[in-house]
Amino acid sequence: MDNHLKEIRIDSTLAYDGHFLKVQRDTVRLPNGQPTTREYIKHPGAVVILPLFDDGSVLMERQFRYPLDRVFIEFPAGKIDAGEQPLACAQRELLEETGYTASDWQFVCTIHNAIAYSDEHLDLYLARGLIEGERKLDAEEFLETFKAVPSDLLGWIREGKITDVKTVIGAFWLEKILSGEWEI
Asked: What is the mean pLDDT of residues 35-41?
C-alpha cells in the first residue's frame, strides 16, 4: 500500500564495524527512480524497564553519558545481547543495574528512537513486585539509583531535567497506565 514511498536497496556495504555500533552504507533507488546513499547505524535493540514499587513510586537511575558530557536521569535500560530474548534482557538489566528482581513483567510497547539514522528499537516493560537484592554492575558501569514519584518525572520532563527519549516516553506511558486510561 505504501510502495510509492518505498526505497529499494541496490547495494550495501559495511562502512564501520565497531565494538558497539556498526554503520551501514547502502545505495538505494528512490521512488522517482534516482539513486542515492543512505547511511545508518545497525543496532541489536535494547530494553527499557519501568520499575514500579507497590507504593506507586518508581526506581530511577542517574548515569553519566559521555557523548553529551552530563549526568542523565533515566529508567534502567540495556542492549539486547545476541540471541537473547527481550524479556530476559530486561530481567538481566534490572538485576545488574539496580539489584532488583520483579515477580510481574508486562510488555508495554516498542519504540524506534532514531528512525532517520538507526534501526534501533527499544522494548519497554513494566516491572512490578520488586524485590531488593545486590546489583551486579559491569566493570565500566557507574550509576546511582533512587526512588521517585511519577508526577515528579512529568515535572522534570516539563522543566527539561529529563530529556532522554526512552525515559520521557516511559514516563508518559506510566502516567496513562497508572491513571487507567491505557491498559497493557
From this structure: 97
